[in-house]
């Protein structure tokens, strides 16, 4: 407490009023200038807007592979795994919410990014490690979404082809034109400056995610009612002719990676929290948003996984709406795939915003007086500004999208890429750093019971991530031997 009072006294000596706001680091005359305690434009986000951002990001391409993952794990394994991952993510996301401000979760200085939170609590070395993992993972997510969206575009074309020519027709199309089209769309949207201005996009994308998930669930239920459900078991796909114990092990581990990917959200939570207004305290509002989004997500995941598995059994496709378990009604399948594409267009931007912010903040700190970095050129229609273009934003973000698109064209393996992203990113970003920051922030003594339980929790998920990563690498290796980069057709 003495240190806290000294800090407040020092702020008052510097002319900063600490009584006008719950934050120690209060910007002078913040109320009069309509800015927050850090001098930035006043934030207006709420629990509902934060929930929209989270749901947009988390209910993505991963939900489409849950029927396949359930088939590998069986009823017992899949339901238990989804519930464990859900409760784990809620726990660690709430730990992360308290790290937005440091050293105190309500009265401390804001950390605008995940890296800043790690540096404030764990130091520079951990910050650099976190940055490498976070931005590599975000780039990987962008690649994963660039793979997934064109698959849904092709599914639209294939659905119409099957409807006209029959279900046995050879309807295969190249991914490449669709990936290029998706990339061009993302280049245009990338010129929206920040996450604060993407609330409308997140709202639309969240509605789309509910829509296509609901269609998948409804089609699965209709198939079950019609008596066309597949064979299911408590333990999933059974070992037998053509499917060895080793194959079963690899598939189970890949399924764990797929489910981990479906819950991988931590790397953008701090950025989302930075959109919230400061009263009530951001950590309390964020925890409410975490609860809303995690409950919603878990319900949809269980429904998609369980109804999809009941509909297709052990033969569940890797992607429920594009693997063509469903052919009719073709117009509804088409509509679902259109919703997927619209959702992924918005989700890509939310995941890419932290990358854009980092590139641009580093450039501004290095070349603060450069016109290329700071100049804005508004494009107007009459007296209304349509969009403001910045040379750095235009070139940097365009280059990022082009690189992502090229990588996606080179390695279009849906389930294995998803599993690898989940395995690589889930443990360090969703488990390790939130727990270590919680330990540091609350000064939990080493070797105390609480410290040991948290580290045991850490170790358990590390082992899961290593196993899932090994399985996904094996799957990608197999995929590289059976298809050629840039010449993949589905």
TrEMBL record:
KW Transmembrane helix (keyword) present: yes
Statement: the UniProt record of this protein carries the keyword Membrane: yes
Location(s), subcellular: Membrane
Keywords: Amino-acid transport, Membrane, Transmembrane, Transmembrane helix, Transport
UniProt-listed GO biological process terms: amino acid transmembrane transport
Boundaries of every Amino acid transporter transmembrane domain copy: 43-475
Coiled-coil positions: none
GO molecular function terms listed in the Swiss-Prot or TrEMBL record: amino acid transmembrane transporter activity
Sequence intervals crossing the membrane: 50-69, 75-97, 204-226, 291-310, 330-352, 394-411, 417-435, 456-476
Stored InterPro entries: AA_transpt_TM
Gene Ontology CC terms, in alphabetical order: membrane
A Pfam cross-reference name: Aa_trans
PANTHER family assigned to the protein according to its UniProt record, in alphabetical order: OS05G0424000 PROTEIN-RELATED
Protein name: Amino acid permease 8
Origin species: Spinacia oleracea
